[in-house]
Amino acid sequence: MALDTPVTRNSPGAAERARRRGGYGAVTAGYERAAQLTSDPQARARRLLAAAVAANDAGRQDRALELGDQASGLSADPLLQADVALLRLLNQAEDLHQSLPAAVAAASAIEAQHPRRAAEVYTTAITHASAAGSDFHPLARQITARLSELRLPPGTMRPCTRPSPNWASPPARNSPPCSAGSARNSRNDPSAVSTAGG
User: In the listed set 16, 50, 75, which residue is the last one of a domain according to the structure?
Assistant: First the structure.
């Protein structure tokens, strides 16, 4: 039986203390345990996603994908779905003909509410599409166009894509500046996991 008690509320804190010590296995276990003890499906899904990110950081991609799929099955939250799609894309969990369109669809669903996260998903999708060969270059161009039209908050540096010269067109004359590190990275920013404001 799942409970919401001080123990379940404190489990994520213990997991984050383990993350600071570099114990990603302990982070994974802490979030998994917290998820098991949580009755609210949305909170359980967020904790499973946090466990998935930690498992991925620990090099346990198969476990990360399992946990991500569990989280996805519990919540229809578009931000969580985008995070799971990004996790699947990063780990090439399926054929790129499936994972790239899924990631782009998930990113488009969060553009208005979470433009920074959408930019991160688009940037990752562009990287994978451009590296995958000429079959994916048209999709890379489409994703690049979406990214360039994305309305990011004032002062946000636009993420750079390092396009392949085979498919990319030159940047627009008045394009805003970009920064390769501007999009939030859920792998290194635990606060970015499905609770990110942007």
Answer: 75
Q: How far is CA 176 from the centre of its chain?
A: 24
The pTM of this model reads 0.71
Question: Binning pLDDT at 50, 70 and 90, where does residue 143 land?
Answer: very high
* Stretch among 6-10, 56-60, 138-142, 187-191 having the lowest mean pLDDT: 187-191
pLDDT tens, residue by residue, 11-30 = 556 556 545 555 677 888 88
- How many domains is the chain built from? 2
Cross-strand partners of 158: 178
Domain that holds residue 160: 77-198
Same-domain check for residues 120 and 130: yes
Report the first-to-last Cα separation within the chain, whole angstroms.
34
C-alpha–C-alpha distance, residues 90 and 71, integer Å = 17
Cα 4 from chain centroid?
Answer: 27
